[in-house]
């Protein structure tokens, strides 16, 4: 885990306080689009912003506990793991997050890792 974190590029995004609870925020970085959520518990979750079904924009979905419901056809995705819940299948990428001085950072893999 530690090694993985060292290979990440931490990208500064938004102020933690500016994130509305249970409301997705779209973050773009070098062709990747991430849906960032501040959960009711205060935790952050960041996942790929495209549903694996037909590319619904997950930042516009409804959050319920640890899940997001896709706004297009209501597939249920577990935010910490990115796994689509049964009876549907598939998964979305998840991203690490951290807060420094009140600002949220998202960890992206380095360019070499993204290419492999
Ligand atoms: S696009 Fe997400 S459920 Fe169909």
Description:
- The longest helix has 5 residues, at 2-6.
- This protein is mainly beta and 116 residues long.
- Helix content is 9%, strand content 41%.
- Strands 1-9-8-4-3-2 form a six-stranded antiparallel β-sheet. Strands 5-6-7 form a three-stranded antiparallel β-sheet, with no helix packed on it.
- The chain binds FE2/S2 (inorganic) cluster.
- FE2/S2 (inorganic) cluster is lined by residues 51, 53-54, 56, 70, 72-73, 75.
State the oligomer: single chain
Radius of gyration: 14 Å
Quick one: overall form? Answer: globular
Percent helix range: under 10%
Instruction: Report the total helices.
Output: 2
Through-space gap between termini: 18 Å
Structural class, by secondary structure, is mainly beta
Secondary structure: number of strands:
9
Bound molecules: FE2/S2 (inorganic) cluster
Major sheet details: 6 strands, antiparallel
What portion of the residues fall into strands of 2 or more residues? 35-45%
Give, in order, the helices and strands: HEEEEEEEEEH
Q: What is the overall pLDDT average?
A: 93
Low-pLDDT runs of 5+ residues are: none
Side-by-side strand order of the widest sheet: 1-9-8-4-3-2
């Amino acid at each position: 885990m530690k090694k993985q974190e060292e290979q990440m590029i931490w990208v500064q995004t938004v102020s933690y306080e500016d994130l509305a609870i249970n409301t997705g925020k779209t973050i773009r970085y070098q062709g990747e689009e991430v849906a960032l959520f501040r959960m009711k518990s205060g935790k952050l979750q960041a996942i790929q912003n495209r549903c694996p079904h037909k590319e619904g924009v997950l930042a516009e979905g409804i959050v319920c506990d640890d899940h997001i419901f896709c706004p297009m056809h209501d597939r249920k995705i577990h935010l910490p793991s990115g796994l689509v819940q049964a009876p549907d299948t598939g998964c979305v990428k998840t991203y690490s997050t951290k807060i420094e001085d009140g600002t949220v950072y998202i960890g992206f893999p380095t360019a070499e890792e993204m290419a492999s």
